[in-house]
Design a protein that fits this description.
- The complex is a heterodimer.
- Chain A is mainly beta.
- Chain A has three helices and 31 strands.
- In chain A, 4% of the residues lie in helices and 41% in strands.
- In chain A, the strands form seven sheets. Chain A has a six-stranded mixed β-sheet, with no helix packed on it. In chain A, strands 12-20-19-14-17 form a five-stranded mixed β-sheet, with no helix packed on it.
- Chain B is mainly α.
- Chain B has a two-stranded antiparallel ribbon with strand order 1-2.
- Classes of the chains: A mainly beta, B mainly alpha.
- The A-B interface holds A 207-208, 210, 213-214, 216-217, 316-319, 366, 368, 370-373, 375-378, 399, 401-403, 438-439, 441, 468 and B 98-100, 104-106, 109, 119-125, 133-134, 140-141, 143, 179, 182-189.
């Protein structure tokens, strides 16, 4: 085989589809005027108000509003700039990013830039709450080599699940200086779920009730599945066309297991950017907070295919939902009647991921996930659970000793997976999320390159996190 | 001071320091051996309680610490798996293996399991001062051990005895890696089975009751 994976050949990639953002207006631009191509399903973009080169300066406000999340029903939500999901932060490697954030919510909040390598003060962790009515500027420079798909969401002490459930989440796309993939139509797929009362109120039961206890145990899930805030939207594709999908699981508790009925996909990336080589997949498990980049090819003209969420049993036997085994539809991929085009050829080599050096490891730590606890403790912001220094390289052995999956998230620093239950990871990748299935162990390696501070590590099932399944990693200068 | 008397002073000071050092080492060693002895006694008490309370009948090894499978969890579905209504429960690995046994628990978490019935892998390592959910570090939604575990009786042992059991399990038994399948259970984690009406009060009511002689 040649050095290019001849999946398909390029015929047309309209330059209009990849045109840079032309309008820099003071409101959120519709997706059609941006680097994201014409697709009603994509959220709007945050508009860059800076005129300086390599600088992205945006306004972001969180506020209470009313939106129709489901047809015919209005719900009171928390929204970024009036949208659920919030507008997409679209940046390039090396950009200086300034976010002027205003909290118009009735409660304290933060904005966590999930997966982004940035100074501690801009991480938006519970250490830096922004009170109602206050403003804060988040400032960071996008690291070279970090091109990928990320997301932003609140991370206040004990209220993250509530705030995300109310509607506060949005995508971040970091574009590469030199993207190895050919330009193609890009789609954001922000996956979420929710649960409503009959009058449209978002359902948060009393924490002391039985129902509240089940949410605390499982992580709050809902039967209504959304893609970019829409129920069962349609994505249009042309026969032979390859689209690049950036998929984000922004749900509070649901682990998605997605598949295109009868069709494989090519996974080209994960949390921290592209893989070294594409991997063909029939389905994909996406833990809470986890991302994937997929290449999807249009079928025969006039055909439709469903993207579905397949059953995934992540639950304790005590509280496993009775409907856990239901397959649910997420969206329809509709191949137009236009004649086929020749598809883009996909490089066999994508992005060099340099392995972290295991001979430089200065500490090996064991992190034990119980149910709602880490190493026997619940979260205490005055306690430091792991102490280290800038420049250290460490191996963390994460052991899940209970009968429920717990997705691990580390703030601030991307890591590499070494092995899972002793089985070597098949390919290198940068990660900030890793699902630790029930009764299993994974080993990761991480290097604290810079940015001293107190960083969170936690289960990304948000009810678990909010009830204390979180620890503090202090990186000293 | 002459050179000779200085030498003598140095000699006496050195001798004194050496004696102090020897005495300190002896005292430390004595305290250390007392501490070793106390630990041995605690583990021996725990071992006696584990054997005499038939922990091994369900968790493995019967009443014989030399038996194969001693306390390492269900290997036999006939004697170590129990059907409680619609639920199957299985005796856990009590050896101090981190991933499959009690290795990641503190002795206080094991104490809390024996005194309050709280599953140590699902209950934080804290001192509990109440049995009202949400108060005194008692979990708002307690996760209890499955009903075959007779903790409602054993909770009446003294603190010293329960901590001795924890010490034996953590420090007196070798770790065995043996994964036991999770038990089933109701969504309330057996809370409905552990009301005062069903398991009685703790501490026990004052002697004598109407059933007792008072002698």
């Amino acid at each position: 085989m040649s050095d290019r994976l001849m999946l398909v050949t390029v015929l047309v990639l309209s330059s209009t589809l990849v045109a840079p953002s032309s309008a820099r207006e003071s409101f959120d631009a519709p997706a059609t005027s941006s680097a994201f191509k014409t697709d009603a399903a994509n959220p709007p973009l945050l508009v860059n108000i800076s005129r300086r080169p390599r600088t992205v300066e945006v306004n972001l406000t969180a506020a209470v509003t009313k939106l129709s999340l489901q047809p015919g029903v209005t719900s009171e939500v928390f929204a970024y700039n009036g949208h659920v999901p919030g507008p997409t932060l679209d940046v390039r490697e090396g950009d200086l990013v300034i976010i002027h954030f205003k909290n118009n919510l009735p409660e304290a909040t933060t904005v966590h830039w999930h997966g982004i390598h940035l100074p501690f003060e801009s991480d938006g962790s519970p250490f830096h709450p922004i009170q109602p009515g206050e403003s804060h500027d988040y400032v960071f420079t996008v690291r070279s080599g970090s091109a990928g798909t990320y997301w932003y969401h609140p991370h206040p002490d004990r209220r993250t699940g509530f705030a995300i459930g109310k509607g506060l989440f949005g995508a971040i796309v970091v574009h590469a200086a030199n993207d190895p993939l050919p330009a193609m139509n890009e789609k954001l797929l922000i996956l979420s779920d929710n649960r409503f009362l009959n009058d449209g109120t978002i359902d948060f039961p009393d924490p002391a009730s039985h129902h509240g206890g089940i949410d605390e145990e499982n992580g709050r899930e809902g039967p209504v599945l959304f893609v970019n805030g829409q129920v069962m939207p349609t994505i249009s594709i042309r026969s032979g066309e390859i689209q690049r999908w950036r998929v984000i699981n922004s749900s509070a508790g649901r682990i998605f297991r997605i598949a295109l009925a009868g069709q494989t996909m090519l996974q080209v990336g994960t949390d921290g950017g592209l893989f070294e080589k594409p991997v063909e997949v029939r389905e994909l498990i996406l833990a809470t907070g986890e991302r994937a980049e997929l290449l999807v090819k249009g079928g025969a003209p006039g055909t439709r295919v469903l993207l579905q969420n397949l059953p995934y049993d992540r639950y304790s036997p005590h509280t496993r939902p009775t409907d856990w085994s239901v397959t649910r539809d997420l969206l329809t991929v509709e191949t137009s009647n236009e004649p086929p085009i020749m598809s883009a050829s996909i490089p066999a080599s994508l992005h060099k991921v340099i392995p972290l050096d295991t001979t430089k490891v200065t500490a090996v730590r064991t992190i034990v996930f119980g149910q709602g606890i880490i190493n026997g403790h619940t979260m205490d912001m005055t306690r430091v659970d792991v102490s280290t220094r800038v420049g250290a390289t460490e191996i963390w052995q994460i052991v899940n000793i209970v009968g429920m999956d717990h997705p691990f998230h580390l703030h601030g620093f991307q890591f590499q997976v070494l092995d899972r239950d002793g089985v070597k990871e098949p390919y290198l990748a940068w990660k900030d999320m890793l699902n630790i299935p029930r009764h299993s162990t994974a080993r990761i390696i991480v290097r604290y390159d810079d940015y001293p501070g107190k960083w969170m590590f936690h289960c990304h099932i948000l009810d678990h996190e909010d009830h204390g399944m979180m620890g503090v990693l202090e990186v000293k200068p | 001071m002459t050179r000779r008397s200085a030498k003598a002073t140095w000699f006496l000071m050195s001798l004194f320091l050496a004696l102090v050092f020897v005495a300190s080492v002896a005292a430390f060693s004595s305290a250390s051996s007392r501490s070793d002895q106390a630990q041995q006694n605690q583990i021996q008490l725990g071992r006696h309680l584990v054997v005499s309370h038939a922990c091994g009948d369900c968790h493995g090894g019967g009443s014989n610490p030399a038996a194969s499978g001693w306390l390492d969890g269900m290997r036999d579905t006939i004697t170590q798996q129990f059907r409680i209504g619609p639920f199957l429960t299985r005796a856990k690995n009590l050896t101090p293996d981190v991933a499959t046994g009690t290795g990641s628990f503190t002795e206080r978490q094991i104490f809390n399991a024996l005194r309050y019935g709280l599953r140590p892998e699902e209950t934080a390592d804290v001192e509990i001062t109440s049995t009202t959910p949400g108060q005194g570090n008692f979990p708002l939604h307690p996760h209890y051990l499955a009903v075959p575990m007779p903790w409602p009786s054993w909770r009446h042992m003294s603190n010293e005895e329960l901590y001795a059991i924890a010490a034996y399990l953590k420090r007196g038994v070798k770790p065995v890696s043996h994964k036991v399948q999770d038990s089933d259970g109701p969504p309330d984690f057996w809370a409905g089975e552990y009301t005062v009406a069903k398991i009685g009060p703790h501490p026990e009511v004052k002697y004598p009751t109407a059933n007792e002689t008072g002698n």
